[in-house]
Amino acid sequence: MKPRKTILTLLILPIILFASSAYASVEGASPWNSWMLLWRVINTIALIALLGYFMKKPLLTFFSERKAQIERDLEEAREQRDKAELIIGEYKEKLAGMEMELEKMRAELKKSAEVESEKVLSNAEKMAATMVESAKVTAEQELRKAKIALKNESVELAVNLAETLIREKIDANDRRRIVEDYLVRVGGMK
Fold first, then answer.
1. pLDDT tens across 56-83, in order?
2. Quick one: which H or E segment has residue 108?
3. Domain housing 159
């Protein structure tokens, strides 16, 4: 009932103030003319009564509908808050599960990385051993080639030295005798 009285008071007060100011502003009229004042008060009360009569149902309907709408909105907000809290709880659980899963994945990755590093080290050791063996074989081959080249060079030098010595020591008689011996040998082979 209290809101209804407040509404009526708010409606009546401006009307009374308006009516009294209008009455006082009329020229030549006495502001204290009691019949005019009574008549205006009766008109004002009648106007307020009519407004109250015609506006009562729409205002009550409006305010009751508004109250019901606010209650529905509050209930819907509570439901949405409860749903959001449930969803937050689910996500917190999932997040906790994801952290555990992440730790498992990290451990697995660490293990696989260790296994891979062991494989890489093993392969590197095998490759190093293969490279050392290959280098030894290559070095031995190069050493043999160098020995052969050195032998060929020394033979060539010995032949050149022998040829030089022979040219210096053999004269025309020795040359003729060597050619005759050669022809005899070649002729005896036939």
1. 888 889 889 999 999 999 999 999 999 9
2. helix 34-169
3. 152-189
